Amino acid sequence: MENKKTRILMVVSNPTTSTTTGWPVGFWAAELTHAYKLFTEKGYDVTIASPKGGKVEVDSLSDPRDSSGYSKEDLISLQFLQEKKFNALLENTKKVSDLTADDFDAIVVVGGQGPMFTFKTETGLQNTFLDFYNKGKISAALCHGTSLLLYLKSNDNKPIIQGRKMTGFTNEEEDFADRVVGKKVMPFRIEDEARKLGADFKKGNAFEAFAIRDGNLITGQQQHSGAEVAKLVIEALGK
Known about the structure:
By secondary structure, this protein is an alpha/beta fold. It has eight helices and eleven strands. About 30% of the residues lie in helices and about 15% in strands. A seven-stranded mixed beta sheet has the order 5-4-1-6-7-11-10, with helices on both faces. A two-stranded antiparallel ribbon has the order 2-3. A two-stranded parallel ribbon has the order 8-9. A hairpin with a 2-residue loop joins β10 and β11 (about 215-220). The chain is globular.
């Protein structure tokens, strides 16, 4: 057995402002922390990066300490967000395009609201993810992080998700979010766009953990699927 540590690149969105609600948005805490916990417990070396590098922010609704109480049950995120060492990683993320697929065994792109407003123009992230994918390395995305897949084309200029099984935040889940907020939260819907590109879009029940693997592509449905995605990544790496 080789002693080289398995290395995972986890990517979160940089903070931005939602063009639909006007809220500050970032990444969803549980999608990072629940996967991070499983990877580090396995002894994997995890690097947290973002398209622009630097300080990143969690979506306020995903912070268990937020006055909304929306994620108050998320004790895993609470534990991590209270840790100095973990916070230091969020204060100074590496820039994705400064890293290379050759140095990692897998990439995992985290969701939240930020990706929906930023990933379309983040060509550095798009190229890096494609590099992992084209090299046959485990390439994972979950929740709104799967929006990244909509912008990626294979060498023959076809969408990489054409004919591939995938999941992501569903129309039912978007309907629920819109009802709760009282307005349209997202600028487009992943399920609709993925189907238009020819993806074989699968889904579990709304807001229940669900993730699927198709070859080296792993996708998770929404914020409760972080651990499921991590389990599929760990299984795929076979270590």
